[in-house]
Each structure stands twice: as C-alpha cells, then as structure tokens.
C-alpha cells in the first residue's frame, strides 16, 4: 500500500500542473481582464478615477489620441504610458510564458502572491475566509451522512413498503427544491421575513460574541448556523440517500446474503455484518465529489444569501473582478485537497474491504 500511496502522490504533480495550465491559458484569452477593467473605470469616471489611481488627476491620460493598438478592449485614446503602468501593477508586463512558469514555480512553494484589489496575500485571505466555509461544510457533511446512510439502509430493507414510498416522496421533494430557494423559504418563515424572527440573518456570531460565556458562545454559534446548515443539508442529502439505498439493494439480492439468512443470521447482522462493507464502497467512491461540492459549489449561494463571508463568496467575487491571484490560488488549493481526498478514499476502500489491494496497480 505504501508504494501505491507514493505513486499516487507523484501522479498529483502532473495532474495539478495540467489543471493549472489549462485554466491559466483559458483565462489569458478571456475578455475583461484586470487591465481592461481598470481602463473601463477610468473611461467611465474621467479625471476623478485617474486621480484615485495615482495619475495626479490629469484627464490628459485618457484623452490623448494614439495610433498604437494596445490590444485591450476600450483602450482607444488612452495614454500608452498609463496602460504600461497598469500592466506593471497587475504583472502583465512580462511575456505570457514567463508569467506561466513563474506561477508554477511560486505555487510549488505555496506562494500565491497578493490579491489585485484587497492588498493582502492570497494565503492570508484564504485563511481568513476558511473558518466560515469549514463550519458550514463540516456540519453539513456530518448531518448529510448521519441522515442519508441510515435512511438509505432503512429504505433498502423496507423496499416498496409504505415507509419507502413516503420517504422517497420527501427525498424527491428535497432533491427538486434548490438549496438557495429553500434558504429563501427559511428566511421568510424563520428569520424575520414574514412570520417568525427566531434566527439571525447574517454572520456566524453575534456582535457581543466575545462577552458571552463558553456555553453562550457555543449556543450563539449554532444559532447562527441553524438556517444555512439546514438549507445545505436539504439540498445535499437526497442523492446520497438514493445511492446508499441502491447500493444495498444490489447487494441484498446476491447469493451470499441468501446464504447468510439461510444460516439463521438476523436481519441486522445481514445488513451491517455482511452487506454494509460491500455496499459502502459505492458511497465512498462518491465522497470526494460530495465533499468538494458541499464545501465549494454548494456553499456559494448559501454564503451569499446568509451573508457568510467564506470561500464560496470569495471565489465568486474573484471571478467577477478578475482577481487572478485569488482565482488561481483557490483553484490550486481546492484541486490539491480534492486529489488528497481521493487518495484517502482509496485507503478507506482497503479498510472496509481487505480484499481490495492496490499494490499490483501500475
């Protein structure tokens, strides 16, 4: 197993390089980069904007005619010297390949540079936003698995019963309603929208959090998390529930289960002693994608709706503002975490089913 782990760790290097390379060159040809956005702000705001950007308030810099094509959309009539200043500020004064290899070298050292617009290191920015996303993702993932796996097993054991039919109806409804829409419903009902005002609408803690006792801080923390976690769970548990049920149904029909029942094993012993290990392999296979989805894509709209300043909201704002250091730094970290989670899943396979052996794989 140690050789397999070593090979997988080595394989992560070209995988990371490939993902970063594809995204780097796609972003380079995408319109509306930071230089173009800065030019657009200057063109739209005139002398005031140039003054704020350190040009001394002179409107000449945006009104001078030039026959030189800068290659930036909307740059007609803008002083080439001003464009050069912008390129130097955002690191676009270097050739494309030089920027690319410089990015790879810096990222190998986990040096992601500084945000274009926040005047803070990307690493510090990610660490600042991470507690919010970890809180939301951790409790969502924990509740999803605590609900979905037992419910899926119960549905498989009582297949086609009234319990299975009614719970399937609830699962379908939960799957059909987007998480963000359910979040809005929770706000309308429980956060002062129309009916009750039982829960706060924004943030992870209250303004007086530091003055509370330890027990008060814990209660305040979960009080703020109640609605966003509930909305995230509703939008995430349906797929895992049906995956667990179908995996158990597939195993229950096999010969070894019939043999175990013929030997007099209890239903609980059959489900959890024989079927569980084999059925959970499919559930584990989808765990990395589920975790990444819950922590990232699943939390972005929830963070926006409940004013939670986490990684999802940061990623969205970075894409809109073309904050390339934050975009690529986040992509690098999330890709690395996803690859490591996949490796952990493979290791978990061998723990659940000792018959699986990765040592022979090349």
Describe what you observe in this structure.
It contains 16 helices and no strands. By secondary structure, the chain is mainly α. The chain has a domain of 224 residues: MetI-like fold, CATH 1.10.3720. Helix 7 packs across helix 10, helix 7 crosses helix 14 and helix 14 packs across helix 16. The longest helix has 36 residues. Probably part of a binding-protein-dependent transport system. Probably responsible for the translocation of the substrate across the membrane. This is Inner membrane ABC transporter permease protein YejB.
Average pLDDT rating? 75
Sequence of secondary-structure elements: HHHHHHHHHHHHHHHH
Helix content: over 70%
Straight-line distance between termini: 12 Å
Largest sheet: none
- Give me the count of strands: 0
CATH class of the domain at 129-352: Mainly Alpha
Nearest-angstrom radius of gyration?
Answer: 26 Å
The CATH architecture of the domain at 129-352 can be named as: Orthogonal Bundle
Domain ABC transmembrane type-1: 130-345
Protein name: Inner membrane ABC transporter permease protein YejB
Transmembrane segments: 9-27, 132-153, 165-191, 221-244, 279-306, 326-352
Organism: Motilimonas pumila
């Amino acid at each position: 197993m140690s050789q397999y782990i070593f090979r997988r760790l080595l394989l992560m290097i070209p995988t990371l390089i490939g993902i970063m390379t594809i995204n780097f060159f796609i972003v380079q040809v995408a319109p509306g980069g930071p230089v173009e956005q800065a030019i657009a702000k200057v063109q739209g705001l005139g002398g005031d904007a140039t003054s704020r950007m350190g040009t001394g308030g002179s409107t000449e810099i945006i009104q001078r005619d030039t026959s030189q094509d800068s290659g930036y959309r909307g740059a007609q009539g803008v002083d080439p010297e001003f464009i050069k200043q912008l390129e130097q500020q955002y690191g676009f004064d270097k050739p494309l390949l030089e920027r690319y290899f410089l990015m790879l070298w810096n990222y190998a050292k986990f040096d992601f540079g500084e945000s274009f617009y926040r005047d803070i290191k990307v690493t510090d920015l990610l660490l600042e936003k991470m507690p919010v996303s970890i809180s939301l993702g951790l409790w969502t993932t924990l509740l999803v698995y605590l609900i979905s796996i037992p419910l899926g097993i119960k549905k498989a054991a009582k297949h086609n019963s009234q319990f299975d039919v009614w719970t399937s109806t609830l699962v379908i409804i939960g799957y059909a309603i987007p998480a963000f829409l359910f979040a809005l419903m929770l706000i309308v009902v429980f956060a002062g929208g129309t009916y009750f005002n039982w829960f706060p609408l924004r943030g992870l803690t209250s303004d007086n959090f530091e003055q509370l006792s330890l027990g008060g801080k814990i209660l305040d923390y979960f009080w703020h998390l109640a609605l966003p976690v509930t909305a995230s769970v509703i939008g995430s548990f349906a797929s895992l529930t049906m995956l667990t049920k179908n995996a158990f149904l597939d195993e229950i029909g096999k010969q070894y289960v019939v043999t175990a029942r013929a030997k007099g094993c209890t239903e609980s012993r059959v489900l959890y002693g024989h079927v569980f290990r084999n059925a959970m392999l499919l559930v584990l296979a989808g765990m990395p994608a589920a975790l990444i989805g819950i922590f990232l894509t699943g939390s972005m709209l929830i963070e926006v709706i409940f004013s939670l300043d986490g990684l999802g909201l940061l990623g969205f704002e970075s894409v809109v503002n073309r904050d390339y250091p934050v975009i690529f730094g986040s992509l690098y970290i999330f890709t690395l975490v996803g690859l490591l989670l996949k490796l952990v899943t493979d290791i978990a396979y061998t723990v659940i089913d000792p018959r699986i052996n990765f040592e022979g794989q090349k």
